[in-house]
Design a protein that fits this description.
Chain lengths: ~240, ~240
DNA sequence: CAGTGGTCTAGACCACATC
DNA sequence: ATGTGGTCTAGACCACTGG
């Protein structure tokens, strides 16, 4: 297979794209096994080694999960136990690895502000859902989240379904709406609590809070969630590894 | 090469360890090329493919840098241009990719507090250097850093050398003391500015600040730097990618 | 036991940088 | 032209899982 230098694209990259496309098209459901390397090799008419490179690069980006002796599986937010901390950077200061309880405090329809529209790549005024919740550790509020979602992708979103879902938010999005979050960017600021956030977080007005702005992306780098979190950092902190 | 299951360790892992050892021993200086894959293969008596796997895993962790057609180089903090942002997560809100100017505001010898000793894996009371500096964007202070270093590893540290070095702090540590930072953990809190930080950062007392605590590690996961940064987030923010 | 992913090898060829 | 890392192949064998 010869290609010109300007157009050069390794075979395994092309195979990767094809697998990615199949994932996006839902050919295999989250949590399911994809075909074995040998099957994929015959399907794409390349060697097993080339498939392996493609699959491993997808696994490196957490789109797939490989398990020796078992197979390769479509990554899912519904069974990531420890790895669920991937999108939850708030930890307790005492080091206890504990998941906060989520309490819904509001869900409303709204129209995208200019800024929200820009970040979500929709048009200003397009319908969105705005969801608010509080995360609590042992009954003590720690995070106040305001989550903005393009309504077009989350048809049928209701307060009841939201409150009823037992797992994580991204598990909810994945199972109920087929929206899979793959990666996110965050920007952090320090701000003072205003009256409302102070009330919901049960801290004095003016308390320094961590403001975490997140844009989360699905396949094709398409933004599908805008989130603003306000975190008290008395008992918790935001954790990050520089590698 | 047969091994028992309990002891199993892939060949490329062993090769990786040997290369890592050589790096730690300074067999090749930062910025220098290491031997080619073929040479390493013959040195370790394995195939080129096995060497490649070892080298690529080191490159993936930023200990080495591979350049097609040129060779594989020991990573250095002295010439990482864009990639220098790896350890500088503070960005301007307006998106301009600009490096802050560093201004030294103090260097003193001290004894490690119990907490510093724990984080740096030294004994309480062991000698340390405490270095303070301000980072400024266009003359406006943005970050106040307090950096604690085990004195044993930074012999000959002086205010003058510190102020004289033109590049980044980790470039300074690497060139002047042979201490190479490989990765770091950070914990973020939001706090209110006290009198002194308010003065140095030119903000009102009580202004919410981002408090960034960092422990940086060198080879063998040995901690060698403890850093506490206080950042105003009016014009800047802390940036992070969740992948 | 069969089937999966993981390792290791040997060899061919390609893209890139330099001389 | 030469040497570097990057890709691709084919095949052998190993480690892990589950029936």
């Amino acid at each position: 297979m010869k290609t010109l230098s300007a157009t050069f694209r390794p075979l395994y990259r092309q195979v990767r794209s094809m697998i990615e496309r199949a994932l996006e098209d839902g050919e295999w459901a989250p949590g399911e096994a994809i075909p074995s390397e040998i099957e994929l090799a015959s399907r794409f008419d390349v060697s097993q080694g080339t498939v392996r490179k493609a699959v491993q690069s997808l696994a490196a980006e957490n789109l797939l999960v490989r398990r020796q002796g078992k197979g390769t599986f479509v990554a899912t937010h519904t069974e990531e136990k420890a790895s669920n901390f991937r999108f939850l950077r708030i930890r307790r200061n005492d080091g206890r690895a504990e998941y906060p309880k989520s309490r819904l405090v509001g869900l409303r329809r709204a129209r995208a502000s200019a800024e929200a529209a820009r970040l979500l790549a929709v048009r200003t005024g397009d319908p969105v859902f705005v969801l608010r919740r509080v995360l609590e550790y042992g009954g003590v509020p720690a995070v106040l989240d305001e989550i903005t979602l393009p309504a077009a992708l989350f048809r049928g979103m209701t307060r009841e379904r939201c409150a009823a879902y037992p797992g994580s938010m991204y598990g909810f999005f994945e199972t109920e709406f087929g929206v899979r979050m793959l990666r996110a960017d965050e920007r952090l600021h320090a701000i003072a609590a205003d009256a409302e956030s102070a009330r919901l977080l049960q801290v004095p007005v003016g308390t320094p809070l961590l403001a975490v702005e997140r844009v989360a992306y699905t396949y094709g780098e398409r933004p599908v969630e805008l989130r603003r979190g306000l975190c008290t950092t008395r008992r918790e902190h935001y954790w990050n590894a520089l590698t």
